[in-house]
């Protein structure tokens, strides 16, 4: 039975996290993993190129060497092992699983905040502080997206929780009360 990408990502990501923790290199590995995530995000076809059967190993080797350049030993070994097993298409899932473990251990929560206008740095900091207290996190990292349909207020999505404090929702509630 073939494993899905999520399961493979969890297994490899957890193994990398455990290894980095054991070796005391967790922060270095985290930095490398985040950089590698950015590479895969910037070049979405990279994994396909590295698993392409029509390309020779000699053609793939410079790309692989470039990925491993300046990386910690654990990350270099991960890249080589994933490449050798033909699982480069699973790499984004592996990296995401590692980051998820890192964030969980360090009390970091990622929140998507939708607002009618861009939030200032001060507003983001104040919101992050309040969210950290509410969610029991040490740190909240906010990704602000703008949607004029919100009208005012914010919609926060974090840790499978949605907090809708938008004017759009309040208008919809008033409309529902008036109609029903």
Distance between the termini: 52 Å
| Unreliable stretches covering 5 or more consecutive residues | none
Instruction: List how many beta strands DSSP finds.
Output: 4
> Rg, please?
21 Å
| Spatial ordering of strands, largest sheet | 2-1-3-4
Number of domains: 2
CATH homologous superfamily descriptor of the largest domain? N-terminal domain of the delta subunit of the F1F0-ATP synthase
What key attributes describe this structure?
alpha+beta; Peroxidase, domain 1; 2 domains; four-stranded mixed sheet; 61% helix; 14% strand; elongated; ATPase_OSCP/dsu; ATP synthesis; ATP_synth_OSCP/delta_N_sf; cell membrane
Offer a quick outline of the entry.
The protein has 180 residues and is α+β, with helices and mostly antiparallel strands.
Give your account of this protein's structure.
It is a single chain. This protein is of the alpha+beta class and 180 residues long. The chain has 2 domains: 100 residues, Peroxidase, domain 1 (Orthogonal Bundle), CATH 1.10.520.20; 71 residues, no CATH class. Helices cover 61% and strands 14% of the residues. It contains 8 helices and 4 strands. A 4-stranded mixed β-sheet has the order 2-1-3-4. Helix 1 crosses helix 6 and helix 2 crosses helix 6. The model has no long low-confidence stretch (mean pLDDT 95). InterPro entries: ATP_synth_OSCP/delta_N_sf (IPR026015), ATPase_OSCP/d_CS (IPR020781), ATPase_OSCP/dsu (IPR000711). Belongs to the ATPase delta chain family. It is a peripheral membrane protein. Pfam families: OSCP.
């Amino acid at each position: 039975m073939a494993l899905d990408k999520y399961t493979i990502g969890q297994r490899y990501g957890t193994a990398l996290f455990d290894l980095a923790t054991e070796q005391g290199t967790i922060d270095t590995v985290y930095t490398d993993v985040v950089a590698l995530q950015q590479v895969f995000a910037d070049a979405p076809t990279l994994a396909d190129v590295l698993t392409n059967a029509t390309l020779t190993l000699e053609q793939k080797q410079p790309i692989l060497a470039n990925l491993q350049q300046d990386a910690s030993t654990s990350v270099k070994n991960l890249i080589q092992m994933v490449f050798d097993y033909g699982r480069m298409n699973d790499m984004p899932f592996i990296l995401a699983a590692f980051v998820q473990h890192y964030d969980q251990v360090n009390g970091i929560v990622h929140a998507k905040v939708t607002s009618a206008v861009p939030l200032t740095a001060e507003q983001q900091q104040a919101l992050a502080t309040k969210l950290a207290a509410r969610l029991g996190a040490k740190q909240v990292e906010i990704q602000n997206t703008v949607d004029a349909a919100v009208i005012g207020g914010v919609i926060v999505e974090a840790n499978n929780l949605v907090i809708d404090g938008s004017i759009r929702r309040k208008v919809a509630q008033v409309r529902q009360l008036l109609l029903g």
